[in-house]
């Protein structure tokens, strides 16, 4: 799938170097084994940046499988695997290499590490996804078997999540070494011989180090334009608005074609927000098309439903399709009037948002839309106590269950228990029954209005030319290891 163009006035195209770069960068970008310089957008501690954290986890601690630059499952600790015809057993053959302490990599040690990793995810959305795992068994000859309670088509994609990298006493097996030097993180690929693989004679010529640094978006893009970095990662809706129209016309930039959850999660079901109809009044009064226009991002896809279009089954409709915006405002105002007849004080809600001009635009739009029905907004920091909090999360694969697990009652105080019960039943039903259960679970979640969808998440990256080992993908996971491999 091709990435969406980033800005309406700055079309994404593959340009020749002479036309694409400034005079100081007129030479065509030739990839060598010099360091690839990567900047991740953000401020504060690097390991607190979720984009950087995923990249570092994937670089420092392998799981059984990994993802390549296009989001395809590739070998990692397991060099091959088979899936039984019933989809209930995944059998992995481990590569012939060593654990971090130098001891042989055995099926027993991998089983124990995997069990510990799974246990650490308890009562999290990832842990709910891993509820499909019935048993992890160590078998003879460096073989590990994972048995499932029911088939899961995307199970290998789940096992490739960076958070499922394995550790032995806090240490992973690579595939890269990570060192800090001169204010940068330097990541270098481990030689194939240290990973249980044949060592090519020319291996040093086919790999390169990668440096990683975190910078505010303006500094990252300035460095990219000046040739001081080669790739900028971690862009979201919050910072995309900082890029002036046309600035990226000489660079390559675009969106990852992601799905997921982007909207307002109810954090305080008290007072005005205690009533689902009041929460729906807020949801219906938001003008999502106007929000996308205000953000100025061509890749923004408005959404009123929990599930994206591709996962909705037979019903593709949006909510409130029988009303135009004026009609939705009138209906919402009627509900507010009924509330105000008993509670005369003005409704005031705390809205938790991240920093950034995109978030400023979102705050302005929400303030305007809620204000049209007499609801005031107080903006607070994203981690502060709030009544409504922005949820901005990419789906790791196209499985409807993921959306419900993110909003599950085990991980959230404000939730739909009825929806959770239906999702648990999907492990025991036929394919057609499962589709019907997902549809009913979505209806219940939307009726509860514990989450107010706004659109699909936005993830963007930019480079000063083609970067070997980098590709836009549906996961928005950009592992460093493929970028370090230049090939022959």
From TrEMBL:
Pfam families tied to this protein: SBP_bac_5 (PF00496)
GO molecular function terms noted in the UniProt entry: peptide transmembrane transporter activity
GO CC entries: cell envelope
UniProt cross-references to InterPro entries, sorted A to Z: SBP_5, SBP_5_dom
Compartment(s) of residence: Periplasm
Positions of the Solute-binding protein family domain: 73-164
Keyword list, A-Z: Signal, Transport
Gene3D superfamilies linked to this entry: Dipeptide-binding Protein, Domain 1 (3.90.76.10), Dipeptide-binding Protein, Domain 3 (3.10.105.10), Periplasmic binding protein-like II (3.40.190.10)
Stretch forming the signal peptide: 1-29
Biological process per Gene Ontology, one example term: peptide transport
PANTHER family noted in UniProt: PERIPLASMIC BINDING COMPONENT OF ABC TRANSPORTER (PTHR30290), PERIPLASMIC OLIGOPEPTIDE-BINDING PROTEIN-RELATED (PTHR30290:SF10)
UniProt family annotation: Belongs to the bacterial solute-binding protein 5 family.
Protein name, entry field: ABC transporter substrate-binding protein
